[in-house]
Amino acid sequence: MATIHDVALKAGVSVTTVSRVMNNRGYISETTRSKVYQAMNELNYQPNEIARSLLRKQSNILGLIIPNVSHPFFSQLADRVEYYADMEGYKVLLCNSQMDPSKERDYIEMLKRNRVDGIIMGSHTLEIEEYQNLRSPIVTIDRKIDEEIPCLSSDNYRGGQLAAELLVAKGCRKIAHICGNLDLKMLSNQRTDAFLDVVGRAGVGHLVVQTDMNVFNESLYSELLHTLLESNPDIDGIFATSDILAAYALKECIRAGKRVPEDVRIVGYDDVGAARWLTPELTTIRQPIDELGHQAVRLLHRQIEGEQVSFNNVLSVELVERETT
């Protein structure tokens, strides 16, 4: 196996020059750079990334912790994070926490052992001190862990407001709002706050249904929606805080013999790809998933480079009206 000394000998330069070429440090003429790369190719030289990371004190690896990669929102988010990380020269270690504190703690320890340059948190189940002790730059998505940890989210309140206002404007008189467990203190709870503000001002009948379960456990959604529609046959509007919940609502409405949108109007949240695959196509609140991924990497990269960043970063949302309303 070729070594850096072999490369230097073949290129006719010093080991220091080869190191500077690999790490892109200092001035190197294009002629010298080309000779080094040619020698590396001819010798099939593979740099020792661990040794290089120790030298640079940087691994060029980011950690991404999300609750469940099978969920369409988080799978699309992970795709965008990886895309923009790659553009900045980083690789991504993907951690699927399943909302399990012990699993999340194990992942954090793994990321520390692998000397990641920073961590993007799309899930958190541990105490604040465990994140503060990481000594690595962190960006959180849609959750506020600490005032001194940068947070990125879309405008959850505006999203809930747009959804509720549309259903009220369409003439709905009893609207069911289906959300995750509000005790989790997520920023997404602002969607519920906005919904209650809108229907309260409009004097529209409503009820809030919390899943009271792991929000990613889809096996229980059908039972939840079936029970809701059976016990409240006069529901004529549904606002669900994810497109997956909205899809199950559509399925159960059809199963119950209710026409959508004639009998029941449905609004989802996120605008994942599946929202356009349904029949009828789903009206939803579009989160800027691409921009969330871009800004998460950008905020982390700026911290790694020692730059100051904003601690509260809120992106705009958009109502996308399709056939379910």
From TrEMBL:
Keyword Repressor: yes
DNA-binding listed as a keyword: yes
GO molecular function: DNA-binding transcription factor activity; transcription cis-regulatory region binding
SMART domains, alphabetized: HTH_LACI
Annotated InterPro entries: HTH_LacI, LacI/GalR-like_sensor, Lambda_DNA-bd_dom_sf, Peripla_BP_I
UniProt keyword terms in alphabetical order: DNA-binding, Repressor, Transcription, Transcription regulation
Gene3D superfamilies: 3.40.50.2300, lambda repressor-like DNA-binding domains
The HTH lacI-type domain, residue ranges: 2-56
Matches recorded under PANTHER family: LACI-RELATED TRANSCRIPTIONAL REPRESSOR, RIBOSE OPERON REPRESSOR
Protein name per UniProt: LacI family transcriptional regulator
Species of the source: Paenibacillus stellifer
